[in-house]
Amino acid sequence: MKRTLLSILAAAGLTLTLIPSILTFTGQIDIQMNKWLMLIGMILWFSTASFLLKPKK
Length: 57
What we know:
Blueprint: H1 2-25, H2 31-52
Helix pairs in contact: 1-2
């Protein structure tokens, strides 16, 4: 359960680093919103992926 939740959160973090760039390129959001969403995605990704990438004992 814990690993599944971490995987979902990590995928959401990666999505938040990709989608805002596309939306900014197409002119649907401004650069400031892009920066905020990418910051949230980066924090979410690094906080969850570090636990997922640890070797199992």
